[in-house]
Amino acid sequence: MFIATGAYSGYLPKAPGTWGSLVGVLLWLGLRNLAIGPYAAVVAALFIVGTFAAGAAEKIVDRGDPGLVVIDEIVGQLIALAMVPNHPVAVIAAFALFRFFDILKPFPVGWLDQHIHGGLGIMLDDVVAGLYALIILQIATRLFGS
Predict the structure, then answer these.
(1) By residue range, what is the domain housing residue 69?
(2) Residue 5 has pLDDT above 60, yes or no
(3) I need a labelling partner for 14 at 20 to 30 A (CA). Which of 36, 68, 70, 78 fits?
(4) What percent of the chain has pLDDT over 90?
(5) Cβ–Cβ contacts within 10 Å for residue 73, how many?
(6) Following DSSP, what letter does each residue of 14-27 receive, concatenated?
(7) Angle (deg, nearest 10), helices 71-81 and 36-61
């Protein structure tokens, strides 16, 4: 449950996904100086561990995709933050864009959320939301500079 709930941040009141995303930003602060290869390896490892932890948490609380599980938001936020400039505006934009796509759930985020179940389903929609945010941030960075 420690992993699934993002060090218990998923138990914080109101908007557990936002708290989980904030944990992702805090974790990024420790990872931001890694080269993209090791950074991606950490995110991939968290995805794998998170998939198992989220699936186990579903069984423990006996509820599908429980709100207190936020490891998916942590991984999605880390994806959104991959390769962003080390600048507060870029970090805030990554946070906001990831939350936007996670909440709005444009295709295929919503489809994944509705059709893939268990730990993998919990994780996948946030991975795609993170990828959407990452793509927009990379385009903006190239268009407007770092």
Answers:
(1) 9-144
(2) yes
(3) 78
(4) 90
(5) 30
(6) S-HHHHHHHHHHHH
(7) 160
Q: Give residues with Cβ within 8 angstroms of 48, minimum separation 6.
A: none
Residues 6 or more apart in contact with residue 64 via CB below 8 angstroms: 58, 117
In a domain? residue 3: no
Note if the bond before 88 is cis, omega within 30 degrees: no
Amino acid letter for position 100: F
Q: How is residue 34 written in tokens? A: 């890694």
The total of structural domains in the chain comes to 1
**Non-local CB neighbours of 139 within 8 Å, separated by 6+ positions:** none
Residue 4 in any domain: the answer is no
The answer to whether position 125 is within a domain reads yes
What's the whole-model pTM score?
0.95
Q: Is the pLDDT of residue 146 over 60?
A: no
